[in-house]
Amino acid sequence: MEHILQPVYIFQNALVIIFITELIIGNLGNGFLALVNCMNWIKRKKVSFVSQLLTALAASRMFLLWLLFACLLISSLYPDLTTAARVIKVINNLWIIGHHFSIWLATCLGISYFLKIGNFSNSLFLYLKWRVKKAISVTLLLSLIPLFLNILLVNLEINECISESQRNISYSFISHYHTQCHRRVLSFYTIFLTIPFGVCMLSFLLLIFSLWTHHKKMQQNVQRCRVASTTAHIKALQIVVAFLLLYTIFMLSLLLQLWKYELLEESLFISFCQVIYVAFPSFHSCVLILGDMKLRQAYLSLCCGG
């Protein structure tokens, strides 16, 4: 029996180490993004719209990572507190708000890259290309509609769970919540996240198509221009592919939890989902730093002490 359990404990400890490492990387990466952009804002008295998006994205992800850490800490130190209906409702609302802005700000950042780098002759695209700030602002404003709907549906579900547990005293609220309500709450959350995922996937596929067609046209020009253009396009595609990979893994982790919901009672499965879950907000900050020359230079100068 001990020989069987030992690999499980090793795997569990490995997942915990990876999870803690992701939290550290995520906080350092997002903190660096926010700090550099804020310092540039103070120094130059102005900041670009993309830098504003990056700062807001970094702040929302730091909030999300610290919220996750706080929830895990509270559940470890005060397990009874996390079984209260009011606490569960507050945590769910904070999760929805944090994830909403984290995902939608990342999506808007992707849309801004698409509008700036993409090259289409379509009149609608050209209209949006010259009004990037307005297009992104309207997108963020419209994203508040699914946010309010998600909060409303989740709170209605939790209130129904509270009422049901009060009518039937044979089981507690927390047991009824985990057996009946939590899966529906997770379903609401996943469904509303598919909206920005679809928007982001569409914009990035169009961007890849635009870069590919532009590269084909550049092959007719001189060799030097072709090499410079190819290098720039390869870097852009690397950022796009890395973002899509992390985003897809994040969505698959949610679908996996819905598909194998009964495994959420297993600590090993929970740790595995948490590791996958945190990879997106943590490692995407590294992708953004490495993909931006100014951020990369600022990071290297910081590491070199100057």
UniProtKB/TrEMBL annotation:
It is a multi-pass membrane protein. SUPFAM superfamilies: Family A G protein-coupled receptor-like (SSF81321). Pfam families: TAS2R (PF05296). It is found in: Membrane. Its main location: membrane. The keyword ATP-binding does not apply. Belongs to the G-protein coupled receptor T2R family. This is Taste receptor type 2. The lineage of its organism: Eukaryota, Metazoa, Chordata, Craniata, Vertebrata. The gene is Tas2r109.
